[in-house]
Amino acid sequence: MALILQKHKFVGATLVLSQFRQFSRIVNSVRMKRVTLQLQRQGLLHIDLDLIKSNQISTLSHKESAILCETDQGNTAKCSVSQQTSNKCSYKLLQLKPCKTNSKRNFSSNNGSASDGTSDGSNTENVVQQKLPRRVLKRLHKQGVSEEQFISKLNSTFENMKEQRKSIDKKDKLEDLLKSMSTEPRYLSETDNFPSDLERHRQWEKQKKLASIAPKKSPSQTSVILFPGQGSQVVGMGKKLLPFPRVHDLYEEASSLLGFDLLKICLNGPKSELDKTKYCQPAVVITSLAAIEKFKEEHPQALESCVATAGFSVGEFAALVFCGVLSFPDAVKLVKVRAEAMQKASEMVASGMLSVFLAHDSNLSLAIKTAKDYCQERRGIENPVCVVANYLFPECKVIAGHEEAIEFLSTNAKEFGILRTKRLAVSGAFHTNLMESAVQPLQRALAGMKIGSPKFTVYSNVTNAPYHPKTNFAHMLGQQLVKPVKWEQIMHNIYSRDKGVEFPNTYEIGPGRQMGTFLKQVNLLAHKQYHNVEV
């Protein structure tokens, strides 16, 4: 059997690797000038393992030789040969030293000492015992350092490294001891004297213990609640919710806060009025929250087992009410301010939104850039806006911006490989910089409101990540107006899992089935557990 050694060159060093394990030291005192022809051509040297075990030293070349020996612990310069197992011996490169042509060095198998008179590895006081190469001695002489001083300095460095390693080991053992003591019943009364990190560790252990006592639910026994956004509204929504308790009360309370009869607009329209932002956004949010009353009656177990929620655009306000962050009256007030501010911003400049359906070879980035150039060069718009406003699923995005850019994309879609486009029935370019004027009114309205802690995970449209209890909601909800909705990314965060792991039951609460359509395009397996609460 042959032990294969592979050589890698570094500046002033030669690194040798074993197929069993990496050598623990890199010798950088000598650079090999010549190696065998096999090493020069292939970079490999085959050494017979039986010769190594019998303490035979193999010569690397006519000018240089490597000293290899088996070690027990690998922390001394020379050790007696101690075979561990037949196939799992450890070897160590100690030094590269010039030698005469065809010379070989032999170690005694009894005491591990070299035939040239050097001492064995049991003497740990002097780690470096061999004579230094001539080139190293010349460098030391130029610097005015003697060989004895250099060896002494090197040995002291090794000793310092050992002491540092021992102190680190002691510190780790002490920390482990304190952590173990913090969970012992007899020391619980003394935890105030421990550092704060150990106190947090004790609390974490306590929570971990409580979690282990509680029965773990299968993902199929949990639920995820999704709320739709603007664009899902239809005339007649809310009609199927009226038989359920508190629905009338919710609509009446919302109407008094909004200043108009919301239920009448939802049931009777007309569609032109319902599609206006100032009516549409409150209608979608209030209808979704009213649908929770129906959801409680029909799926009480799903309500109790909810683990996550998310809302699309303005639907995020419904999700925040559902998880306890906002109260119902505060949410209605915020949606009113948001809708009016966005409607006002939409009237300041002609803008719109366009859904684009993509193929694998579509070049959406080039299409957006070309649309901006067209607006700037042909239409005289100084700072044209044309960006992705909504990430729906891999093959569909929503583009928002100036009216001229939207018209350009709609007309020239085929030139960029876009399969088809669909104009959205909205009044402006939402989730773009054109909504900048609507940010401050919403943030001012949020400033004086009470914000609760989420009862379960709720995802942000801006970051596509769960809200933290200490999140600045005023800032985040304000940024939602000018940042894209990362719905596709939220779906991946909720439903990505290993193969064979079950999916939760998903319920879309609100008008339409748009969230279910998006989920089907992102994760077909998760969509098999999708349900809709009709309104």
UniProtKB/TrEMBL annotation:
Query: What EC number(s) is this enzyme filed under?
Result: 2.3.1.39
Name the principal localization, coarsely classed: mitochondrion
Which residues lie within the region annotated Disordered?
102-131
Q: Which GO terms describe its molecular function?
A: [acyl-carrier-protein] S-malonyltransferase activity
Q: List the pathway annotation.
A: Lipid metabolism; fatty acid biosynthesis
Q: Where in the cell is it found?
A: Mitochondrion
Q: Name one GO cellular component term.
A: mitochondrion
| Mitochondrion in keyword set | yes
Asked if the record carries the keyword NADP, the reply is no
Q: Keywords, A to Z?
A: Fatty acid biosynthesis, Fatty acid metabolism, Lipid biosynthesis, Lipid metabolism, Mitochondrion, Transferase, Transit peptide
Domain named Malonyl-CoA:ACP transacylase (MAT) is located at 226-532
Output the GO biological process annotations, alphabetical, semicolon-separated.
fatty acid biosynthetic process
Record-linked Pfam families: Acyl_transf_1
The kind of enzyme this is, by top-level EC class, is transferase
List, as start-end ranges, the regions of compositional bias called Polar residues.
102-129
User: Per the similarity annotation, which family is this?
Assistant: Belongs to the type II malonyltransferase family.
Annotated protein name in UniProt: [acyl-carrier-protein] S-malonyltransferase
Taxonomy-wise, where does this protein's organism fall, top ranks first?
Answer: Eukaryota, Metazoa, Spiralia, Lophotrochozoa, Mollusca
